[in-house]
Amino acid sequence: MTCGGDTGKAIKYIQKLCKYKEWQLKGIAEIKIPENYIALFSVPDKETSTQIIKESDKQINKIISDIKSENEFEIINPSGLSGTLKSGITNTAFYKIFVHAKGFHYTNKCIGCGECVTLCPLNNINLKNQKPVWKNNCTHCMACICGCPTEAIEYKNNTQNKRRYYLK
Ligand code: SF4
Ligand code: SF4
User: Fold this and answer.
1) Ligand 2 touching residue 119 (CB < 6 A)
2) Whose Cα sits closest to atom 4 in ligand 2?
3) Smaller CB count within 10 Å for the chain: N or C?
């Protein structure tokens, strides 16, 4: 779960889910990953991203070991009022106003490989005449635009000449 740079108050959704499932919540653990939201921000260069990913691998290994040992995690609730606002009203308004696939389009660099179709976790892209067509179920994960091998996808006028998120 994420709320941008931190988890906001996303923990409340996990707590609700655990209650519904009658699971015991053992806490949450934090993993830092590189910025990928190129619709609004710039992403780190390849070297910085590689370093962040390397660090996150260490964090993940520690988490795996804690889970195997049945250790409990801290219930992180870090963001106070800011988290409440981010996970509440800001999140609702942001999704409604901004999180749509409408802004995505392909350029003449598209070679019709279909990688964007494969990468979309919500099956929101089809190929028509070997070119991508976006449907209405997008969560702005940025996988299609960052994973296109020829950088043929742009988002509105926000992403031209911007570095793509380093995925590998
Ligand atoms: S991944 Fe890029 S090149 Fe491949 S079909 Fe999609 S837009 Fe075209
Ligand atoms: S941003 Fe993510 S969810 Fe939206 S169309 Fe691209 S891959 Fe699919």
Assistant:
1) yes
2) 138
3) C
pLDDT in tens, 118-130: 999 999 999 999 9
The pair of structure tokens assigned to 159 is 């992403």
Which CA distances in Å does 92 have to 7, 88, 97, 99, 134?
A: 15, 6, 9, 10, 22
For 105, counting Cβ atoms within 10 Å of its Cβ (0-12 exposed, 13-18 middle, 19+ buried), the class is middle
Q: What is the pLDDT of residues 70-107, one digit of tens each?
A: 888 876 665 578 888 888 888 889 889 999 999 999 99
Whole-model pTM? 0.86
Three-state SS letters, the chain: CCCCCCCCCCHHHHHHHHHHHCCCCCCCCCCCCCCCCCCCCCCCCHHHHHHHHHHHHHHHHHHHHHHHCCCCCCCCCCCHHHHHHHHHHHHHHHHHHHCCCCCEEECCCCCCCCHHHHHCCCCCEEEECCEEEECCCCCCCCHHHHHCCCCCEEECCCCCCCCCCCCC
**Ligand 1 centroid from CA 148, angstroms:** 5
